[in-house]
Design a protein that fits this description.
306 residues; alpha+beta; six-stranded antiparallel β-sheet; four-stranded antiparallel β-sheet; 20% helix
Length: 306
């Protein structure tokens, strides 16, 4: 009986030792396992490459369009593994030539819609070059510039960024514009006067070309345009129109309206409209007034129509 108890005790101790050994091995594995973290971008935790539609296309002050973004770390054919290193956003019209013996690293490249990136194999925009027209996203820029730096990352000695779209750069003004007139001063009887006017905006060629790039670009350009009126004129001292609250109708394409009115005998009338201009773009607002003209040429009653 005693021998049986001793045998049971030995088996129990042996089982406990094996359990302890297994636990120690698992612990050792956990402590010695090596984690290979992907490199961070811009000193932050790694994030996936942004979609090209999520990359900013305008500067923070909304005065210029970005044409290009590039990352100076190594690219990769797998998007999730690209966009390494620091990124650089470059505005339309930007150009740069690297110092002698150096080059601009470009592992991943974005070119926005309406924009062109030209990368040169030599300094001062000389030598062979590669052109990319947006919209383009290259998670791994191929070796097309004739140069590599830092262990095989493509690099350019000089490059140029250009874009079709440009923010409006004009000074707005407004005025009362006579759109119709009728002289009934030679009659003692009232007369019916029919006139036409338009409400809406006609855009310059430069603005229209930018609108064609994309809905997003068009929205940015229009917001900048109307923002100029609000910031420069605000509530006009000339017309009284509040350019911070331009009607939707005035912002749309021009639409013509026909109106009929009565003009008293012995008087004339002028129909005037608040209009504005910024560069070659013209705005005809919904604000109209009628100005009575007396037989002697002096102005009489002024009535706001809209």
């Amino acid at each position: 009986m005693m021998k049986l108890l001793l045998l049971i005790l030995q088996l129990a101790l042996l089982n406990e030792a094996k359990t302890l050994e297994s636990a120690l091995k698992d612990s050792f594995k956990e402590e010695t396992h090596v984690h290979f973290d992907l490199p961070a971008r811009n000193n932050t935790a790694r994030q996936p490459c942004p979609a090209i539609g999520d990359v900013p296309i305008v500067t923070q002050d909304r005065k210029e369009f970005y044409g290009v973004r590039y990352y100076d770390g190594r690219g990769h054919p797998v998007t999730a593994l690209s966009c390494n290193g620091d990124y650089h956003d470059r505005v339309s019209g930007y150009n740069d030539s690297a110092p002698e013996g150096e080059g601009w690293l470009m592992g991943t490249l974005y070119v926005h819609a309406g924009c062109i990136f030209d990368g040169f194999s030599d300094y001062n925009y000389e030598g062979s070059y590669k052109e990319y027209q947006g919209p383009v996203f290259l998670s791994e820029v191929p070796d097309v510039f004739g140069n590599t730096c830092n262990g095989g990352i493509p690099c350019v000695d000089s490059y140029i960024v250009t874009c079709k779209q440009k923010m409006p750069d004009c000074v707005p003004d407004d005025r009362w514009t006579t759109v119709a007139s009728f002289d009934n001063s030679g009659s003692s009887l009232p007369s019916t006067f029919t006139y036409k006017y338009v409400i809406g905006t006609t855009w310059s060629n430069q603005m229209s070309e930018g609108f064609d790039v994309s809905i997003t670009v068009s929205g940015e350009m229009k917001a900048s345009f109307w923002g100029r009126f609000e910031a420069t004129i605000g509530v006009s001292h000339t017309t009284g129109y509040n350019w911070g609250y331009v009607s939707t109708q005035a912002k749309q394409e021009r639409q013509e309206f026909t109106v009929e009115t009565k003009v008293p005998g012995g008087k004339g009338i002028k129909i005037q409209q608040t209009t504005g201009s910024c560069g070659s773009s013209d705005v005809s607002t919904e604000a109209l007034r009628s100005v009575e003209v007396m037989a002697n040429g002096e102005f009489g009653e002024i009535l706001i129509i809209n």
